[in-house]
Amino acid sequence: MIKKIISGYYSRMLLLCIAIVCTVTITLFILCNSLIEQRQRAEYLKSYDIELNNLASILSSKEDALANTLTPVFSSTSRYQTLCRLYKDRNLSVSSVSYSIIQMMREICQYDSHCRGILLRTGNGRLFQYSPVYDTLVSIPLTLTTGFTFTPYQLQVLSDAQLEALSPEYEKPSDHVYGLCSTLFDYQGTSMLPLGQLIVLYTTSEFANSVASAYLAEDALFTITDKDQNILYSSDGNYESLEHRILPNLSEGLTVSGSQNLDGTKHFYASVWNVEYDYQTSYQIPASGVAQSSSRFILAALASLICFASILLYVVTLQRSDRKIKTIQTGMGRVGQNNLDYRLPVPKSNDEFTQIILSFNRMCDELQQNVEKAYLYEISQKKAELYAMQTSINPHFLYNTLEQIRVQIMQRRYGDASQMILLLSKMYRNQTRRNLYVSIGEELNLCENLINLYMYRFGNFEYEFVIDHSIKIYGIPKNTLHPLIENYFTHGLVPERDDNLLTVSVHAVWEGEQEWLEFSIDDNGASISEEDLAVLEEKLSQPVLDRKEDNGFALSNVNARLKLVFGEASRIYPSRGTDGCGFRVRFRIPPVLPENLQ
Q1: Are residues 281 and 274 in contact, defined by beta-carbon separation less than 8 angstroms?
Q2: pLDDT confidence of 256, banded at 50, 70, 90?
Q3: Alpha carbons 289 and 266: distance in angstroms, whole number
Q4: Which of 130, 334, 458, 597 could tie 105 with a disulfide, CB 3.0–4.6 Å?
Q5: Separate counts of helices (H) and strands (E) for the chain
Q6: How far is CA 43 from CA 50, 54, 213, 334, in A?
């Protein structure tokens, strides 16, 4: 079975078509399945993306509103100066300034219901904590090596762990908090002097409430981290480790989403980077939560059915056609063994194979009657016509040349007449060769001998051959260009002019995928009228051997020989020259070597 598939051309083509159908079907199934999966995932994760943006906007709004939150600090000059004294004077007791500062802290905490306290860190190494629950301001020891650097005049976010590292006596105001840190400064002359930091503490319950109100899956994990991977918020309550979390490294201004295997389970994730405040909001959720659509199973069944039906149709078609092909091959083998009496049995079905069998039988009938007679007759007839037309040129050319030699002798130019006889002998020595075809280079050499003969009669003309050397090797019927050049000296050359010019050019041209050698014989001599050109075209269309007159015989002879050898596409096209002056003859032949034309 495999041998049948790979041995026949059309069986391979049919198999290729089946393979293309199956490939296209599978490709479309994969594409549609992917699109359905992407749509389901997008629909499923839409609520998570919205919540991701909500969490990011909560933190951003806190940072944007920090300036308004700290309005009580700057609303009263006296209270602000009192706060600055607390930051500057290391020996100043809290009790001496507590009333004014506590009132200020209370107003700050009342601005936002999620505010759970304030930390005051001075530049001289002191730390104070305000608790809105007890409405007290107490001094607590400051841990100097916290692994966190406070940058003056830059809004910073402190995680729960970083806040706990500030002091061993720090009292956490809620289960999990984060701090927004701003710089307290005073003026020293015309410059600002940073005194320390004021850290507003917020509970993370606002994030947790937002996640709970979105009614998302319980196994979804939302995380907010700063640029140093400190956890600001974690929906699972784990603020100590980033293990088992998908936190891609983001460049500024990017949003990343995708899927990743985590602990052997595929998870979907998305992460957004806040460029302004340098924090990253992310979520991850197991991919098993996305429901499988029935459309995907229907598409899989349909794709399998199409592929199976295509293969089954191919096998049935191959078996039926193989039996009929073997029958035809058997008949052709018998006819190939000279059994021309054999005929194929005609089947009852009326398909393409039946038509082939009928045509084969008719061919055998005709072949048996005409095979030898038609072939031998056609070959002998073409050789006879070609040789007769070629030899018909020789007497005509000889008459014209002898007339020119006679004129030279009468004018007592014996040296020129002798040279003309030498050139004529060279030409006729070549004519005695019985070969019907020569190379283009040999034909041009014969033409140059002819032109040199006419040089002795007309000295007022020039000629040029324009041809690439690589083209000269191809074949052409002998004496094809010779009559066309002689036609110029007979009808085109103007004796009264000194600028007569004859140009013979050959160049390769392409027509579709077929290469041709295009010949052009141009002169600037006497032109031809439109009426005479129409008459010449009519003569070229007539059989040359049936012509009763000599006028135009040379062109007709060349035209008939070209069509006989190369076909109708190689006929001669006469026309007026450039700008309506002179005369032009064009024809084209295929590039064939002389030995292949014999």
Answers
A1: yes
A2: confident
A3: 10
A4: 130
A5: 17, 18
A6: 12, 18, 19, 72
If DSSP states are collapsed to H, E and C, what string results for 413-454?
A: CHHHHHHHHHHHHHHHHHHCCCCCEEEHHHHHHHHHHHHHHH
Question: Per-residue pLDDT tens for 494-507?
Answer: 888 888 999 999 99
Helix (H, G, I), strand (E, B) or coil at 196: strand
Structure tokens at 417: 């007449």
pLDDT over 90 at 359, yes or no: no
Cα torsion 209, 213, 214, 215 to 10°: value is 120
pLDDT confidence of residue 380: 46
How many residues are recorded in the chain? 598
3-state secondary structure of 516: strand
Please check whether residue 270 is in contact with residue 256, taking contact to mean a CB–CB distance below 8 angstroms.
Answer: yes
Q: Which tokens belong to 133?
A: 């629950």
Q: What is the 3-state secondary structure (H, E, C) of 517-561?
A: EEEEEEECCCCCCHHHHHHHHHHHCCCHHHCCCCCCHHHHHHHHH
pLDDT tens for each residue of 109-166: 998 899 999 999 998 889 999 999 999 999 999 987 666 788 888 899 999 999 999 9
Confidence of residue 282 (pLDDT cuts 50, 70, 90): very high
Cα distance between residue 588 and residue 572, in whole Å? 8
